[in-house]
Amino acid sequence: MKQYVLALDQGTTSSRSILFDHDGNICSSKQLEFTQIFPAPGLVEHDPMEIWLTQLTTAKLAMSAIGAQAQNIVAIGIANQRETTIVWNTETGIPVYNAIVWQDRRTSDMIDLLKQQGHADLFRRKTGLILDAYFSGTKLKWILDNVAGVRELAAEGKLAFGTSDSWLTWNLTNRREHVTDESNASRTLLFNIHTGKWDEELLKILDIPANILPRVVPSSGVIGEASSGLFGIRVPIAGIAGDQQAATFGNLCIRPGMVKNTYGTGCFLLKNTGTKALESKNNLLTTIGWNVNGERNYCLEGSVFIAGAAVQWVRDGLKFIDEAAEIEELANHVKDNGGVYMVPAFAGLGAPHWDQYARGIIVGITRGTSQAHIARATLESIAFQVSDVVQAMKSDSGIGLTALRVDGGACKNNFLMQFQADILDCVVERPTCLELTALGAAYLAGLAVGFWKSTDELEQVWKVDRIFEPKMDATTRNDLLEHWHKAVSRSQGWAKE
Ligand code: ADP
Questions:
Q1: Which atom of ligand 1 is nearest to the CA of 311?
Q2: What residue owns the CA closest to ligand 1's atom 20?
Q3: Is the CB of 308 under 6 A from ligand 1?
C-alpha cells in the first residue's frame, strides 16, 4: 500500500496541502487562497473559519487527486504562518474576533508603553524576542481588552487562544486537543524559551489569563488524531512547527552552525545554534527551532523585509520585465553593476540595521546606466542584505558560515545564487524540493510515527539540485561590500522629520 505524510502548510495568503512519499517526492499538492482583510491602514485580519475550511478542502483535494485514502496517510504535519492570533469560544467553536495577522500594527502603542515601562530587557531575556507588535502577545491582549464579553468567557473557562496551528489542531481533533508546539509558542512574547513554559511574570504584565493558553507539545510527536468524521478513519497529527522553523528543518539544518535562507517576498535567515540559546548583540531574534526527541534546538533569526518584492517592483513599478524570472536575463546583459547600487529599504530596513526611517535609493547612476544595471543592482541588493545578516550572526556566534542552504521563489534565480555565494565567500546549496516548509512539517510528523527512522535517513531524502561555489576574488568582494555599505548609510534615516 502506498504511504504518504500529509503536510498542511497554512500560510499568510493561502492554505496548501501536500502529500509526500517516503523519498520526499511531492505526490500531490493543492492550494487555495483566502481573503486578506484590511479594515484600516496598518490592520490585517483573516477569517479563521476560512483558514480552517481552505485547509481542510485542500487536504481532501490533494488526497482525492491521486486516489489516496486516510489509510494511505501515516501522519499529518502542520507548518503555519507564525504569530497570527486567533481566540475562540470553546463552547460554540466560533472565533470571538478575526485572526489578527502578524503584519498587523494595531498594538504599536501598547509596545511603546511596555518599552517606556522598562520591560524590553525582561522580555528579551525570557522570550528571545524584541518587543514588537509583530508577535502574538499584544495582539491577544488587544482582543481581551477590546472584544466585549471575552474576559468573562475566559473566567468561565470557555475561551482559547492559539496561532493557526492550534486552531487547525483543535478543529481537526474535533475540539479534543488545544495545543501548540514550542517553535510557535516561542513567538508569542509569553513563553520562556529557557524553561519551556508559559511565563507567569510576562502573563501578569500583559494581563493574560493562563487558562486560555494551549498546552505546549514537542514539534515532533503524536499529539492527537484527526477525527474519523473528516477523512474516514482517524489519522495521527504528529508534527507542528512555525513556517520558518519548519523550512529550516526541511532543509535539514539540524546541526549547530547550519544556516538556511528563504528568498521570498522578504528573506528569513535562521541559523541553528544547537541546544544553546544565544543572546544576540546584533538585534537578531533568539527563537526555538524545534523540540524533537526531548531536545530543544535553538536558532538565531534575522529577517530582511524586501527581497523578492524588489524584483516585483522592477516588474510592476518600473515595468522593465513582464515576469519576475526575466530579471536574470536582463541582469546578465551587463558584466557588472557599473557602479550602481540599489538599497530596497521600501519599508525601512530590518535586521541587522533596524531603521524604520530608511527608504529605498538607487545611487551611482551615470549616463551609461541602463535597465540591465538596475536589474543587476536589484538582485545584488538581495544578496548584500543577506550578507549583512550573516555577518551579524557571525558576530553573535563567533562562527563563520560554511554553507548556506536556500529555498523560496527567488532562489530559482541562478545569477542571484552565484552572486550570493561570491559575496558570502561560501557555498550555496539549492535543494531539488523547494517546498521546504511543507517538507519540514512532513519530516517532523514522519519521524514521530517511524515513517522515517532517524534524521540520518532524512539525509538520504534531502537532494541537492545545484551547488554554487564562490568564484569572486577578495578584492572585488570587499570593494562591492564597501560600496554597498556606503549606499546603505545614504538610505538611512531618510524619512525622519
Ligand atoms: P512568498 O512565499 O513570500 O509569497 P515565494 O517564495 O513564493 O514568496 O517567492 C516569490 C518572490 O520571489 C516574489 O517576490 C518574486 O518577485 C520573486 N521571484 C520569483 N521568481 C524569481 C526569479 N526567477 N528571480 C528573482 N526573483 C524571483
A1: 16
A2: 410
A3: yes
Name the grid cell of 183.
Answer: 517553535
Mean per-residue pLDDT of the chain: 94
Residues 297 and 276: their CA atoms lie apart, in Å, by 7
pLDDT tens per residue, range 439-470: 999 999 999 999 999 999 998 888 899 999 99
Nearest-atom index, ligand 1, CA of 412: 23
pTM of the model: 0.91
Q: How far is the CA of 114 from the centre of ligand 1 (A)?
A: 36
Residues 2 and 65: their CA atoms lie apart, in Å, by 14
Percentage above 90 pLDDT, the chain: 81
Query: Which three-class secondary structure state does DSSP give residue 75?
Result: strand
- Mean pLDDT over 36-57 rounds to 93
pLDDT tens readout for residues 60-71? 999 999 999 999
pLDDT band at 104 (very low <50, low <70, confident <90, very high): confident
Residue whose CB lies within 8 A of the most ligand 1 atoms, among 413, 417, 433, for a mutation test:
413
Q: What pLDDT score does 497 carry?
A: 63
**Could you tell me if the CB of 188 is within 6 A of ligand 1?**
no
Regarding the beta carbon of 264 and ligand 1, being less than 6 Å apart is answered yes
DSSP class of residue 493? T
Measure the CA–CA gap between 496 and 213, rounded to whole angstroms: 40
What local confidence, expressed as pLDDT, does residue 265 receive?
85
Confidence of residue 351 (pLDDT cuts 50, 70, 90): confident
Average pLDDT over residues 197-221: 97
Nearest-CA residue for ligand 1 atom 27 is: 410
Instruction: Transcribe 283-329 into DSSP letters.
Output: S-EEEEEEEETTEEEEEEEEEES-SHHHHHHHHHTS-S-SSGGGHHH
Please work out whether the CB of residue 212 comes within 6 Å of at least one atom of ligand 1.
no
Question: Which position has the grid cell 519540514?
Answer: 440
Look at residues 264, 262, 213 and name the one whose alpha carbon lies nearest to residue 14: 264
**Cβ neighbours for 363, distance < 8 A, ≥ 6 positions apart:** 340, 341, 342, 343, 487, 490
Test site for ligand 1: of 9, 34, 311, most ligand atoms within 8 A of the Cβ: 311
Q: Is the CB of 327 under 6 A from ligand 1?
A: yes
Rounded to whole angstroms, the Cα distance separating 298 from 494 reads 35
Cβ of 408 below 6 Å from ligand 1: yes
Q: What is the rounded distance in angstroms from the CA atom of residue 359 to the CA atom of residue 373?
A: 20
